[in-house]
From TrEMBL:
InterPro entries: Metal_Hydrolase, TatD-like
Native species: Aliidiomarina haloalkalitolerans
Pfam family of the protein (one): TatD_DNase
Binding site residues for a divalent metal cation 1: E96, D208
GO cellular component terms attached to this protein's record: cytosol
A single MF term (Gene Ontology): metal ion binding
Protein name in the entry: Hydrolase TatD
Keywords (A to Z) from UniProt: Hydrolase, Metal-binding
Amino acid sequence: MNWTDVGVNLTASSLLPQAADVLAAACAADVRRCVLIGTSLQTSVQASELANAFAGCISTAGVHPHDAAEVSQQHPDFIRQLHALAQLPQVRAIGECGLDYNRNYSPPDIQRNVFAAQLELAVELQLPVYLHEREAIGDQLTILDRYLDRLPAAIAHCFTGTSYELAAYQERGLYIGVTGWVCDERRGAELQAAVPNIAPDKLLLETDAPYLMPRNIRPRPKTRNNTPANIPWVAEQVAALRQVSVAELALQTTANAQRLFGAWEAADAS
């Protein structure tokens, strides 16, 4: 089977020094394609460099809502910089961008401005948007709706919401990324209930590594750092919830990822 992990924070300090080993382990687990997430100007550059260096990887370029205030103050030309970065063939989406009112590391008004600017860029470049949202669904949808009919595609990255939020995203044709949150018996009940309702042609799998370690891994790992090699554990839970085979899920989610991001080099010959 070939798996695709559409959400890897390989630039995180716990993964970056061992990036080659992380990706080799992923390949050994049949995770042949990875999307490396950019969350700031710096990590977007790093993600693009890693995607250029390692087969089977592509990247995104964007500013996370947590970093919205900093980029606005220190890099008022951030859209120009993202525009230049997005010319690279390995950069396939704008984001991770969106709104996060859970902690408000950046003031909401600045988050909204930075989000809208990135949506405008995605429209200009005709690239998909890679979306983040926490406790901001109303404002997120209001802003997204202004651009949606001009965007080629969008993904709700690391979806952990309710069936109501899923319906709102699916009405808008979004792809839905499911992480190890679905394996969490403490927090994942609402997501578990929503997963069977995700449209087959919009379902994607991701780890959000190094975060959200799947809690169904046996034996339990000694490290707290999640890696893309753990996608099969996410898949096992999703397949059970959707009552499909793991093999069918692998084919379906990889095809969806390629439709969203375009084809990319991977070890397809195995």
